[in-house]
């Protein structure tokens, strides 16, 4: 706190630009004779009592000098935060406040502000939990010297979290889908919200009821779309655009949305229309690629744990199943990988001549590892890690034979591949 007895009425306020706001206000009040000595004495006594209360609130021993000094700093910070916020930085208005209100009342105003921030969601995910107590939170804010600008920025951000979670929960209720699954998955509110708005505006009439997360997660004909349902919505939108040059949108659901949530609902719908639909309907990019990108960055779905491989994964993996015929045999799969690594036609069985050609190609052009990785990515998602391990373990030893230039007649390389791959040997005469 400034030494008000040395204040000079003609001193420039610029001198205090870097001082806490309360000090600036107090100096302004003294210079302009808005408070007298009696008020000053009252503030000092009130501050002494308030400091002890604050020390006790934060669990510090009130009789230790160090704790009291820290508590007095925190109390002044609370007063400063409240004054600056309530006056919006107007020194004259803030000076009038310290004239009319007690020091402890002003301190409580700052405490109320920080408690209001604590009451808001800590992040924008379902099931987010606060791990610090209210007193720990206030202590952290005061210890970090939270400014009004930082406070207002935090309030704006966390209020947005509350709004997004509130609207997302409201829409889930409208879709008869409990939020517990989203809490368990710590789902991002923005993604859940976007999926719900997409479904209500574009998907209700475009997908079959059976592809919604009903049963344990919902009830009746409503429900939150799963991955397959989302993909079907995308597919229907692209088909509709190809026939009509437009995509029909139902805004009826907006009529029942509470007024506080309506701007966010409209903003989300507008974002879908401006950012996502042009990508979804564009014929120049495969729909599966668009969907795979958007579902990770923008949307959320509930995967059906009863299916080992989702219908969407199966659709993406159609080429893989054609190439492998659904085989899980390591020898057949490694033959396929060697074909890719050598730049040959993809096959799960190779003749001896094809094996020799593969080895020569690899020695001339190197292992086409990227082609193998690209091939593995065509497999169902939950199989890719295992396939990558199969290839990595195989090629670590195989490369010693494949790249051994001293094996001029390729006999050792071919022999090694015969032991690990599916090599068709010529029929014995």
End-to-end separation in angstroms reads 105 Å
Order of helices and strands: HHHHHHHHHEEHHHHHHEHHHHE
Strand arrangement in the largest pleated sheet: 1-2
| DSSP, total strands | 4
Strand content of the residues, in percent? under 5%
- How would you state the average pLDDT, rounded? 82
**Rough outline:** elongated
Radius of gyration: 34 Å
**Can you give the helix content as a percent range?**
55-70%
The DSSP helix count reads 19
Class of secondary structure makeup = mainly alpha
Give the total of domains. 3
Multimerization status: single chain
**Which sheet architecture does the biggest sheet show?**
2 strands, antiparallel
Q: Are there runs of 5+ residues with pLDDT below 50, and where?
A: 1-19, 209-221, 304-308
What does this structure look like?
By secondary structure, the chain is mainly α. It has 19 helices and four strands. It has a two-stranded antiparallel sheet with strand order 1-2. It is elongated, with a radius of gyration of 34 Å. It starts with 20 loop residues before the first helix and ends in a 5-residue tail after the last strand.
Write the layout of secondary structure elements.
Layout: H1 21-31, H2 37-57, H3 65-87, H4 91-100, H5 103-118, H6 134-143, H7 148-174, H8 180-185, H9 189-203, E1 212-213, E2 224-225, H10 227-244, H11 262-281, H12 287-297, H13 311-316, H14 318-324, H15 330-342, E3 350-351, H16 352-365, H17 369-376, H18 381-402, H19 411-420, E4 423-424
